[in-house]
Write a structure and sequence with these properties.
It contains nine helices and seven strands, in the order E-H-E-H-E-H-E-H-E-H-E-H-H-E-H-H. By secondary structure, it is of the alpha/beta class. The longest helix is centred in the middle third of the chain and has 27 residues.
Amino acid sequence: MRIADKVFAVTGAANGMGRQVVLNLARRGGHIAAVDLDEVGLAATAELARGSQTTVSTHVVNVTERDAVTELPEQVLDRHGQIDGLVNIAGVIHRFAPFTELSSDDADRIMSVNFTGTVNTCRAFLPVLLARPEANVTNMSSLSALLPFASQSLYSASKGAVKQFSESLYAELYDTNIHVVTVFPGNVDTDLTGHSGVEMLDAGAKKVRSTTPQTAGQKIVDGIARDRFRVIIGADAHILNGLSRLSAKRTTRLVAKQIKSVL
């Protein structure tokens, strides 16, 4: 998909990978409607994008609030005149704990933000995107949707739901003007845990290799430009995904042992 002169709505745009997606789209001549709950973070993202030949509007919206999301496309159209892409980056994680120690509120929050929020935005934007000659929907899943992670059962389930939903959309829309991309990042050096209100595992002296948000954002936009089916981000994601295809059971146990040793 050609990025220049296209308009993209990007959720989770106030920080981390969402911010980097905005900046990479802007560098390639795209125009962006940046969406997030964090008004201050959105303003900072817009300031960072300033100077490129692009227009960035900011929209303080909670993706779990259906009525607010339903009104969002019209707001973007009023500001930009068209919408050519939707990039769903917004997401949260829960605390690292066995399923039996997680509450119903934990489950509701994770599914509401990660899965229902993605469904809400797709439902709102798809009618507008179908009217465009070329359009894109990109949804953020996770390596944990390809390989389960102990202590992140509900998060893995929410991202598994995003994977199946997103790839089902691809199947429904493959012969239309809309291309659907699903993103599977491994460990990316963002403050996802902090923004989710949980604490990171203390791995002691062991340094966990991670991908920078800048690299992740570039790979996501590359995936949009190249109409990828899946975008897998990080050496850890590629290695573990490959191992799980050889032996899902052994790879799941390997990862589980490493996580439990930290827990």
